């Protein structure tokens, strides 16, 4: 029995040693990775503080716990006689005694290790505690600077918890030992204890109560994050006038109870300490629930608005500051029907950059036309702007990333040595269509080609972007089913659905706008610059070429990540990834490099885990290189009185840092942004700059080419829009009654209903018409509970220097009725001409994708634009087929934006939409055009086709199959003739 026990102990010890060795190799390889990025000091700062906290807290907990357990284990006096039932028979006690001391030691060590692990995870709080930066804003209740709550209170709360629970655990453990030692026995219905045990237990209990008294002081600070107030956050009337006084009372009661426990150690009876403990519990119950509930019900509710107004004001002011909205000053936007050819000419750059391509169908189109091989995938499409041949043009671009799930016959060699990188990108203007409704590629193909002079000298993508579905959906919410209003003309299937409804037991395929393909899969590392060639890209060769000749190979020439300069390093990475091929392959040389943590933003999280990162990094072509730009956020949930948001549970956020990462070298550079106009520098990023001085650089050091591509992030903008929709109501009465609550309106996307996604536009602000067009992020608003009705305003985030980061809100006069997105969507759904066209496409079993409805402010007017895409059955290749424009009481449609503008404003309007340079237009394929006469022919054919279908159904009902087939053939001929008119 003893031998098997020893073997078990030795086996457990061996497992523990192996785990420690594995962890040691991971730590060492992490150090090599940080060192390769020039941030070894970041690694040593984090690791050093983790070890310091873990060792100190763990050692203190072990010393405290083991001392008290040994104190309880002291043998009883020989002359002591206790009356009562013994806990264990003598035989069982002798067996336990052989292991009792070892068991207590193991218990103390285990507790110390767990305490040390928990403490090591508090390194952020510890570093922030040491580097407090004042906010310059005090809370309204205690008058403390917000920096105390953000930088100091989290660590103070943790230290109190650690101290309190260490005493409680020690109290429980010591009591168990005293009971085992029989220093405490149950005699009848009472507990008897020897003086030494009574002194020990009551002393620990008294200490716990004294420490508990301080928790009520911390609970006072927690009132600043209360949600007891109706419709607002922060301390409410009942918190200040009921809970706060009772917390002061609890401090006194708990402290007195602790003193009573210490004094009672000299008493033989336990009735007095028991009564003191019961008193604390009773006062705590009253203070925590009964009395505040009574005040809320009897005092506050009858006078709620009057009593809560000061606290609502505190919440409004703090929330606006916490989200950088306190400097936003609403401006009046009076909408006037004065848009015409002359206004379009004055705003030519705005019209030339109206986005007709949505990122969802365009991503599918990129994948179908430009992926080239199954191991490439476009996982996201981003919007940016470039100056092309003297014009400020908005474009959409996506990186061609490597997808390991598409590699045929994948093995270790192919996954880690051969397929090491993606290649190039696709780039297209947002508003151009060529051929049969496809994008006009400005950058495309393998190798990379550009029709307008984009230069990409280094197209390899060794570092790539990943996606986070939860946060992506927060920026771009999914569709929900939507029942279209009945159209003015017969339409089967219903508009927006395309294919007929699925029958029982069948599933209808979703169009590209709704259903995304799988995300690219990844491997944990690749090894580059080996003796093996790396696949660069598949080349287009003649039909007689072999598969080997059809590929172009390369070798990595960068300095990314860790060089495998020794066999020891190879062994370390073998231990980290547990792939034996790292040790035994002959392909690795001392010049080879292992690249890992390659996906963004995970790479940035590994390097600098003190910030939050946007889930949607975007690519920039700069100086012939492909570069990722990632927005980084500082955030906290400890800003007093501010409202919390759902996406991260915090109540303060700033986009203080832009991270630039070369897609070839993989070196992230963190640039600290200057504060937005009217804002103060972010104290949190200032704190982290003090902690990690080597990590951050000033924005002025960023390459000027990259500075032109900085943009306001959609994630932050959506958070701010949601907050502002409620907190623009600065009057407490208006806020409390939600009289002017703004919300993000819905729209019809594909055949579903979803919230309008914020979108980038090139335009002039209504108040700055004399300035040039600028790149903006825009979000319209409607009233809550009237989401399908009128717009009440819109918000813009400025992306260009020198106004980057400034938020502007335009509200419409309440006496003016401005159509909201859903009102325009309903008009589009009920338009007879559009309905007939969609019915015609539906006859061909095609999927119809209604794109984003964009509200485009042009001077004092609003122009509504919605693209419609067509996806052929069994072919996921969305094509832009129709552009719908709405202005005032008019709705027009055409295959191109230019023709739609002509139909809406006359022949003079189309000239304002043409690019100024003929060279640019000459490089484009001829766009698809449909004449007005062709549209008239379609109407006539459609009417005849509907009549023939009715006759065919009547013949089928009579059993006349021959007539039914003849009518169907005639109908099909008419439909084909209509399609011919569209070409």
Radius of gyration: 35 Å
- How many H/I helical runs? 27
Give the mean pLDDT. 85
**Strand-pairing-aware structural class:** alpha+beta
How much of the sequence lies in strands comes to 15-25%
How would you describe what is shown here?
With 983 residues, the protein is an alpha+beta fold. It has 27 helices and 40 strands. β12 and β13 form a beta hairpin. α7 packs antiparallel against α8.
List keywords for this structure.
6-stranded mixed β-sheet; 983 residues; alpha+beta; 27 helices; 43% helix; globular; 40 strands
Write the layout of secondary structure elements.
Elements: H1 2-36, H2 40-72, H3 90-120, H4 123-130, H5 146-181, E1 184-187, E2 190-193, H6 195-222, H7 237-263, H8 271-300, H9 304-322, E3 331-332, H10 341-346, H11 348-352, H12 359-370, E4 376-377, E5 382-388, E6 391-399, E7 401-402, H13 412-418, E8 422-423, E9 425-429, E10 433-434, E11 438-439, E12 443-444, E13 449-450, E14 460-461, E15 464-465, H14 469-475, E16 480-481, E17 525-528, E18 534-538, E19 551-554, E20 562-563, H15 567-577, H16 581-584, E21 593-596, E22 599-600, H17 602-607, E23 612-613, E24 618-622, E25 625-636, E26 652-662, E27 668-672, H18 683-691, E28 696-698, H19 704-707, H20 714-727, H21 732-737, E29 742-743, E30 746-749, E31 752-755, E32 759-763, E33 774-783, E34 791-798, E35 807-811, H22 821-830, H23 832-843, E36 847-850, E37 854-858, E38 861-871, E39 879-887, E40 890-894, H24 897-905, H25 918-922, H26 932-957, H27 961-982
Parallel strand pairs: 3-35, 15-22, 27-28
Antiparallel strand pairs: 1-2, 4-7, 5-6, 6-9, 8-14, 10-11, 12-13, 16-31, 17-21, 18-19, 20-21, 23-25, 24-25, 25-26, 26-27, 29-33, 30-31, 32-33, 33-34, 34-35, 36-38, 37-38, 38-39, 39-40
Helix pairs in contact: 1-2, 1-15, 2-3, 2-4, 2-5, 4-5, 5-6, 6-7, 7-8, 26-27
């Amino acid at each position: 029995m003893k031998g098997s026990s020893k073997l078990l102990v030795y086996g457990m010890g061996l497992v523990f040693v192996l785990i420690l060795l594995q962890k040691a190799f991971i730590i060492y390889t992490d150090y090599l990775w940080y060192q390769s990025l020039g941030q070894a000091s970041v690694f040593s700062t984090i690791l050093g503080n983790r070890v310091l906290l873990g060792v100190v807290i763990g050692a203190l907990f072990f010393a405290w716990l083991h001392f008290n357990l040994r104190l309880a284990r002291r043998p009883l006096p020989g002359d002591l006689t206790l009356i009562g039932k013994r806990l264990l028979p003598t035989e069982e006690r002798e067996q336990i005694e052989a292991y009792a001391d070892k068991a207590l030691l193991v218990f103390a060590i285990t507790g110390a290790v767990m305490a040390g692990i928990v403490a090591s995870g508090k390194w952020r709080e510890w570093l922030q505690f040491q580097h407090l930066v004042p906010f310059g804003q005090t809370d309204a209740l205690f008058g403390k600077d917000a920096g105390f709550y953000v930088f100091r209170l989290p660590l103070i709360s943790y230290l109190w918890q650690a101290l309190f629970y260490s005493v409680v655990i020690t109290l429980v453990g010591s009591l168990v030992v005293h009971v085992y030692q029989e220093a405490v026995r149950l005699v009848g219905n009472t507990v008897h204890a020897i003086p030494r045990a009574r002194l020990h237990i009551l002393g620990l209990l008294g200490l716990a109560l004294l420490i508990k008294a301080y928790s009520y002081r911390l609970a006072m600070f927690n009132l600043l994050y209360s949600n007891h107030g109706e419709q607002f956050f922060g301390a409410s009337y009942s918190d200040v006038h009921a809970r706060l006084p009772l917390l002061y009372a609890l401090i006194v009661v708990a402290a007195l109870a602790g003193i009573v426990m210490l004094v009672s150690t000299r008493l033989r009876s336990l009735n007095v300490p028991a009564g003191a403990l019961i008193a604390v519990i009773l006062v705590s119950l009253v203070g925590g629930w009964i009395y505040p509930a009574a005040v809320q019900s009897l005092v506050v509710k009858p006078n709620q608005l009057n009593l809560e107004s000061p606290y609502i004001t505190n919440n409004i002011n703090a929330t606006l500051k916490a989200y950088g909205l306190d400097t936003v000053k609403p401006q009046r936007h009076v909408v006037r029907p004065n848009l015409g050819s002359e206004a379009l000419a004055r705003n030519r750059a705005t019209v030339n950059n109206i986005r007709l391509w949505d990122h969802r169908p365009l991503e599918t189109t990129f994948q179908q036309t430009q992926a080239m091989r199954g191991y490439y995938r476009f996982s996201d499409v981003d919007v940016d702007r470039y100056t092309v041949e003297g014009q400020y043009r908005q474009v959409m671009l996506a990186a061609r990333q490597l997808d390991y799930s598409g590699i045929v016959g994948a093995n270790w060699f192919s996954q880690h040595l051969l397929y090491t990188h993606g290649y190039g990108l696709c780039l297209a203007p947002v508003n151009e269509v060529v051929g049969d409704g496809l994008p006009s590629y400005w950058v495309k193909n393998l190798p990379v080609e550009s029709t307008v002079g984009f230069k990409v000298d280094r197209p390899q993508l060794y570092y790539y972007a990943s996606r986070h579905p939860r946060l992506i959906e927060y920026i771009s919410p999914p569709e929900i089913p939507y029942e279209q209003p009945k159209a003015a003309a017969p339409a089967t299937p219903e508009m927006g659905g395309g294919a007929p409804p699925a029958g029982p037991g069948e599933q209808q395929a979703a169009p590209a706008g709704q259903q995304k393909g799988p995300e690219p899969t990844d491997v944990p590392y690749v090894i580059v610059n080996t003796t093996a060639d790396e696949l660069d890209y598949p080349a287009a060769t003649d039909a007689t070429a072999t598969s080997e000749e059809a590929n172009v190979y390369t070798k990595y020439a960068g300095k990314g990540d860790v060089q495998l300069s020794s066999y020891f390093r190879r062994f370390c990475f073998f231990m980290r990834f547990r792939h034996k091929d790292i040790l035994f392959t002959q392909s690795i040389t001392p010049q080879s490099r292992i690249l890992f943590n390659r996906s963004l933003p995970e790479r940035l999280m590994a390097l600098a885990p003190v910030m939050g990162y946007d889930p949607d990094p975007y690519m920039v072509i700069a100086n012939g290189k492909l570069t990722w730009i990632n927005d980084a956020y500082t955030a906290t949930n400890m800003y007093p009185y501010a409202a919390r948001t759902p996406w991260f549970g915090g109540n303060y956020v700033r986009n203080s840092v832009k991270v630039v990462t070369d897609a070839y070298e993989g070196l992230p550079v963190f640039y600290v942004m200057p504060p937005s106009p009217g804002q103060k520098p972010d104290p949190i990023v200032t704190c982290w700059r003090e902690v990690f001085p080597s990590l951050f650089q000033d924005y002025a050091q960023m390459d000027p080419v990259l500075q032109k591509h900085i943009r306001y992030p959609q994630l932050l903008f959506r958070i701010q829009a949601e907050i502002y929709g409620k907190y623009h109501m600065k009057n407490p009465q208006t806020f409390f009654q939600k009289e002017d609550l703004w919300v993000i309106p819905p729209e019809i996307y594909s055949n579903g209903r979803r919230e309008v996604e914020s979108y980038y536009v090139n335009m002039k602000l209504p108040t700055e018409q004399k300035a040039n067009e600028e790149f903006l992020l825009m979000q319209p608003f409607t009233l809550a509970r009237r989401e399908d009705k009128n717009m009440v305003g819109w918000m813009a985030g400025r992306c260009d220097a020198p106004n980057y980061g400034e938020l502007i809100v335009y509200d419409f006069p309440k006496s003016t009725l401005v159509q909201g997105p859903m009102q325009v969507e309903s008009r589009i759904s009920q338009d007879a001409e559009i309905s007939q066209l969609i019915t015609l496409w539906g006859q061909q079993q095609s999927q119809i994708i209604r794109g984003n409805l964009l509200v485009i402010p042009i001077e004092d007017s609003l122009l509504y634009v919605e693209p419609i895409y067509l996806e052929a059955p069994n072919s996921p290749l969305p094509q832009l087929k129709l552009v719908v424009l709405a202005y005032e009481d008019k709705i027009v449609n055409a295959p191109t934006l230019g023709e739609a503008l002509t139909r809406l404003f006359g022949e003079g309007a189309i000239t304002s939409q043409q690019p100024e340079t003929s060279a640019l237009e000459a490089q484009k394929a001829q766009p698809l055009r449909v004449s007005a006469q062709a549209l008239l022919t379609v109407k006539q054919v459609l009417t005849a086709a509907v009549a023939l279908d009715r006759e065919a159904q009547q013949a089928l009902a009579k059993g006349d199959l021959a007539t039914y087939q003849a009518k169907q053939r005639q109908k099909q001929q008419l439909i084909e003739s209509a399609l011919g008119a569209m070409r």
